[in-house]
Amino acid sequence: MTKPLPVGATIGILGGGQLGRMLSAAASRLGLKTHIFEPGANPPAADVAHAVTTASYDDHAALTAFGNAVDVITYEFENIPTSALDLLESLAPIHPGRQALATSQDRLTEKNFLQSLGLQTAPFANVENAGDLAKAIAEIGTPAILKTRRMGYDGKGQARIMAPLDADQALADMAGAPAILEGFINFSHEVSIIGARGADGAVACYDPGENVHEDGILRTTTVPANLKPSQRTDAVLLAANILNALDYVGVMGVELFVTPNGLIVNEIAPRVHNSGHWTQNGCTVCQFEQHIRAVAGWPLGSGVRHADVVMENLIGDDMDRLPELAHTDAAIHLYGKADVKPGRKMGHVNRIVTKG
Amino acid sequence: MTKPLPVGATIGILGGGQLGRMLSAAASRLGLKTHIFEPGANPPAADVAHAVTTASYDDHAALTAFGNAVDVITYEFENIPTSALDLLESLAPIHPGRQALATSQDRLTEKNFLQSLGLQTAPFANVENAGDLAKAIAEIGTPAILKTRRMGYDGKGQARIMAPLDADQALADMAGAPAILEGFINFSHEVSIIGARGADGAVACYDPGENVHEDGILRTTTVPANLKPSQRTDAVLLAANILNALDYVGVMGVELFVTPNGLIVNEIAPRVHNSGHWTQNGCTVCQFEQHIRAVAGWPLGSGVRHADVVMENLIGDDMDRLPELAHTDAAIHLYGKADVKPGRKMGHVNRIVTKG
Fold first, then answer.
1. B334 touching A, CB under 8 A?
2. Which spans in chain B are helix H?
3. Whole-angstrom Cα distance, residue B63 to residue B86?
4. Which residue of A157, A276, A303, B349 has the fewest CB atoms within a 10 Å radius of its CB?
5. Which of A5, A281, A332 to mutate to test the interface with B (most CBs of B within 10 A)?
6. Looking at the structure, do residues A210 and A327 belong to the same domain, yes or no?
């Protein structure tokens, strides 16, 4: 059991986007500093970080200085180059650990891992070439979806195969990257569960939220989700199962499809998650602070929900609605991004429904 | 009516203590940057600020550079040297404005102002010398309390006069500073009301909190306060009265004594206030964000209380209780101060009682 980090200690965060920004603000509440490592200039997290290193993930001198300057390392995205992790882990503990990263970085590894725990996933098959794909389509059927094994997010690196005829184009879309074919799931809606596991092995989960996507990007999360009590319990148990199996330390997002045959795991993200942003205004301790508590070796805090919440992402031109939103009772959370781009997450709002 | 500051704009904050720290974290939620001006090295606010200027208030070059780098100026303490304000106000708007500062910087000006609004204060008299003091004691009686007109906080610059015999020592304690004598108030308890006024003139007040002091330092604030509905209304009306009279923009703390003859104003603070820290976990928009919204020209947010809260300050050795507190459901807010000193505010906790 690690000793909790003392007040004034520094948490290194790989990635300086909005998740790093909100992690930094949360760390400040616990008297902890953050140091951001980010290749891009002026990242959103820089506004609220104690220190920022602007360097690429193959800059070993910068990585070494960063690793020596921090007490523990965490990250806001999972696609961190392995060589950087190899170097950093010799300098400071990395939470969540390498096993969680390796599992979630590769859709094939992730699905095999989930099935090894007895959890349901979409039917899937490894696809390395046209022969594999033909065989996979024969086995899984269409419609199906071809996804790169690595580096996919927000619907990128995916191609739908509505009929076997689409196979060639889909494979071309992968641009030679290793891929998996996933069968379509007949689900009624998608929920996600945000779980946390402390360095002491304690597990705490937030209430599941119900997600609506548009164009492959999360649009809203609503709590409580439309779930039967037994499904809610199932969601918590399967999240705990995953967290324990990975000896996980930190917050994890688990996306689930709700089907007549139970909950099917879509994917896991070894970090704070967009579908957990509602916790900032619905709980005493939000997902960002919970993650910081875990990686800092503190006990987990209270994630009890005190209100019903609808979280809505502000994407691209949604920012034009800001003047109007500022006049409502919604809690506004902006990421300080100067340039509005289509599909870019610029902020989110949490609308609260007080209980009782 | 000022135009609202756009995302990415910078708010200059005079003072880098815990209030500046929490203002900075709140500003980040609105996509705004902060720039701290603070004479002391490594101030608490630096951990979450976009920029920090370390310089004294008579460094005109540093003040000029600061004033030119920010879009609006606010402050976390009221005792800012007048010469610095004179220079800064030529460079950027200052909110709350000079009238609020001038009024609250001097206990005599403040009391005259409050009485001019028809509000009750403790009986008081100006004391510049032993003759004034004798006359004031004859008029007001004992027990009474002699206070420096300027620069007093947390019980500093005060001397009790239990009997006329104590007058000489009390006057000596003032060390030649202009002072006022205040009569004792027979009050049952102290409450404070945190009010906000936007650039558009809209006023919003948080529910009054009930304060308990120890050794002249705030120990706890509890909401709801023990007040009759009519007293609660009185508190809101008098706060609005003060805010409007000063053409105020920002958050203000008003300390009130509850007496059989109504509410008596103890003092006003033209800034976010320790007795408003409970709003961080009791409201959608806390006092820090409300202040930022106001000084940035945004509409005020929702200050509706969704829970009963007890705020407890962590002072000096209270930090020894941190490991135990981290295991409770309390929301922890630490200021990142490295050195624990007796009487030093190190952080606070908010304990939530969910309604309904």
1. yes
2. 18-29, 60-69, 82-88, 98-105, 107-116, 130-140, 167-173, 229-245, 279-282, 287-295, 322-325
3. 11
4. A157
5. A332
6. yes
Q: What is the dihedral of CA B339, B344, B347, B353, to 10 degrees?
A: 150
Same structural domain, A167 and A287: no
pLDDT per residue over A68-106, tens digit each?
999 999 999 998 999 999 999 999 999 999 999 999 999
Give the type of residue at A108. L
**What does the block give as tokens for A305?**
């929900």
Residue B324 domain-assigned?
Answer: yes
Q: Would the CB atoms of B50 and A50 count as touching at under 8 Å?
A: no
Residues B346 and B233 grouped into a single domain: yes
Per-residue pLDDT tens over the stretch A177-218? 899 999 999 999 999 999 999 999 999 999 999 999 998 899
Of A346, A345, A350, A356, the C-alpha closest to A154 is: A345
C-alpha span between A290 and A110 (Å, rounded): 24
Q: Which one, of A31, A101, A39, A128, lies nearest residue A250 by Cα?
A: A101
CB A107 within 8 Å of CB A269: no
Q: Where are the alpha helices (DSSP H) in A46-166?
A: 60-69, 82-88, 98-105, 107-116, 130-140
> What angle is formed at CA B5 by the lines to CA A221 and CA A35, rounded to 5 degrees?
65
User: Which residues make Cβ contacts (< 8 Å) with residue A296, sequence separation at least 6?
Assistant: A4, A5, A9, A11, A27, A30, A32, A72
Shared domain for A198 and A69, answered yes or no, is: no
Q: Map residue A232 onto helix, strand or coil.
A: helix
Say what the ipTM of the complex is. 0.93
Element (H, E) at A223: strand A217-223
The residue written with tokens 């090894």 in the block is A116
Residues 11-40 of B with CB under 8 A from A: 21, 24-25, 28-34
- What letter represents residue B7's amino acid? V
Domain span at residue B32 reads 10-94
Instruction: Residue window 243-272, chain B: list those with CB within 8 Å of chain A.
Output: none
Question: Is any Cβ of chain B less than 8 angstroms from the Cβ of A41?
Answer: no
Instruction: Flag whether pLDDT at A355 surpasses 70.
Output: no
Q: What is the pLDDT of residues B248-274, one digit of tens each?
A: 999 999 999 999 999 999 999 999 999
Range B15-20 average pLDDT: 98
* Distance (Å, whole) CA A85 – CA A77: 13
Residue A196 and residue A176 share a domain: no
DSSP state of B33: E
DSSP letter, residue B121: B
